[in-house]
Specification:
- A hairpin with a 4-residue loop joins β9 and β10.
- This protein is α/β, with parallel strands linked by helices.
- A 10-stranded mixed beta sheet has the order 8-7-6-5-4-3-2-1-9-10.
- It has one domain: Metal-dependent hydrolases (TIM Barrel, Alpha-Beta Barrel), CATH 3.20.20.140.
- It binds zinc ion.
Length: 428
């Protein structure tokens, strides 16, 4: 198995951003990221991250280096254990001046009687009002693993969960929901499976003969549930959970105006469709598609969409984002997609118009999250950047203080052993 390394070359466009100014300015000697020549630099919002408080310095470095105005932490924690996961996430958001927006998780323990629902509605309210959370995240466990008191799988459209969806709408908290998984995970995990490389590293991701509903049935259940809750905004992650089937995604978006989708960890999948078809979908639903990556950042782990046997390093982060930008903005044919572990094929870039890019990168997220038009406040104090390796080698390059203080931020970080499965990727 090979390391997850994006092969795309960095070719910063000097016209796109002047180093040291604007949202593409980066500390510590990192060059401005590639954007389409002539495109004015603008901040972006990553709607799909998995973040840990202990990775705060690395998170801040990524935000600064990529030009990310805000990132959504879909691993914000639940009410379990006195809500300590939520407290840690709140501290993370506070440390980064609100540039991290947390989404709460339900605690499925005890699901799904009326007392459970009341408890989880109350926890969601606390997450909003006490901890400043921005939304609710539902992992793929719903429908695939969550069981009720009788031991039966809980379906995505189980009416016992309706109070939660209703409360999210009342609290103006969008619900980011992951339903099912790539279609190939329902096929035998053999070498001729198109996602074999990924399944070989993560055998538990295979749903073949695991007694779960089939792929289409799960997505149908999701759409029935969405239809019952028009007052709640849903973000169907991973390109509506159906990147393999553009017609399905198009039909869902047409029928359900309160549903948005994100592009996280599926550029390689929807990028396999003809570029003109994908481009048209983005244009037709330009108000409902959100930029996201499925990046996971902690102090001792890193995930870029999906990991292979060898964990990526901080050096892989910028090429990972650039692969997204090249696909969305560029015109190149047969380029690498951001997460090659998900399939060693190439994609054709879709050259979205500037106004559509602005919506996908930022303004759709601001609307969905209720952020208004104002700036997100910068934090008060800064720490040495984990991107400071270059500055450490060459103290004339980099942010003030970076060279002297780079100690704990030194890169690259050690890679995790294969199969060390405790990262948030389990919680997509
Ligand atoms: Zn995720």
């Amino acid at each position: 198995m090979t390391a997850l390394v994006c092969a795309c070359a960095r070719a910063p466009d000097p016209a796109a951003a002047a180093p040291g100014a604007g949202p593409n300015a980066v500390a510590s000697g990192v060059a401005p990221l590639w954007h389409r020549p002539g495109r004015a630099p603008a901040p972006i919002i990553d709607i799909h991250g998995h973040l840990s408080l202990f990775g705060v310095d690395r998170i801040e470095a990524v935000l600064d280096a990529v030009g990310i105005e805000a990132i959504i932490n879909l691993s914000g924690g639940s009410g379990r254990g006195g809500g300590r996961g939520r407290i840690a996430s709140r501290v993370l958001a506070e440390r980064l001046g609100g540039r991290v927006i947390n989404f709460a998780l339900p605690d499925w323990e005890g699901c799904c009687d009326a007392a459970w629902a009341a408890r989880e509605v109350q926890e969601l309210r606390l997450a909003r009002e006490q901890d400043g959370f921005g939304g609710l995240k539902i992992s793929k466990a719903l429908g695939l693993a969550v069981t009720d008191a009788a031991g039966a799988l809980v379906a995505v459209d189980d009416p016992r969960l309706d109070p939660l969806w209703r409360a999210a709408g009342e609290l103006k908290m969008p619900v980011a929901i992951h339903i099912a998984d790539p279609k190939a995970f329902w096929q035998p995990a053999t070498p001729d499976n198109e996602r074999y490389e990924e399944l070989a590293v993560h055998p538990s991701w295979s749903w073949y003969q695991r007694g779960v509903p089939d792929w289409a049935a799960m997505l149908d259940a999701g759409e029935r549930m969405f239809a019952r809750h028009p007052g709640t905004t849903f973000i169907a992650v991973h390109f509506g959970n159906a990147a393999e089937d553009l017609a399905r995604v198009r039909a869902m978006l047409s029928r359900l105006p309160h549903v948005c989708i994100d592009i996280s960890a599926r550029v390689g999948e929807f990028g396999r469709h003809p570029a003109a078809e994908v481009r048209q979908l983005f244009i037709d639903f330009q108000d409902r598609i959100l930029f996201g990556t499925d990046i996971g950042i902690g102090d001792d782990h890193l995930m870029l969409g999906s990991n292979g046997a060898v964990e990526p390093t901080m050096a892989d982060v910028l090429p990972f984002y650039e692969a997204h930008f090249r696909y969305l903005e560029g015109e190149e044919r047969q380029i690498d997609h951001p997460s090659p572990i998900q399939g060693r094929w190439k994609v054709d870039a879709i050259a979205l118009p500037d106004d559509v890019l602005d919506k996908v990168y930022r303004s759709n997220a601001r609307r969905v999250l209720g952020l208004g038009a104002g700036p997100i406040a910068p934090r008060l104090t800064r720490r040495p950047s984990p991107f400071a390796a270059a500055a450490e080698a060459n103290p004339t390059v980099g942010a003030p203080g970076a060279a002297a203080g780079a100690g704990q931020g030194g890169l690259p970080r050690p890679t995790a052993p294969a199969g060390s499965g405790s990262t948030p990727e389990e919680d997509h």
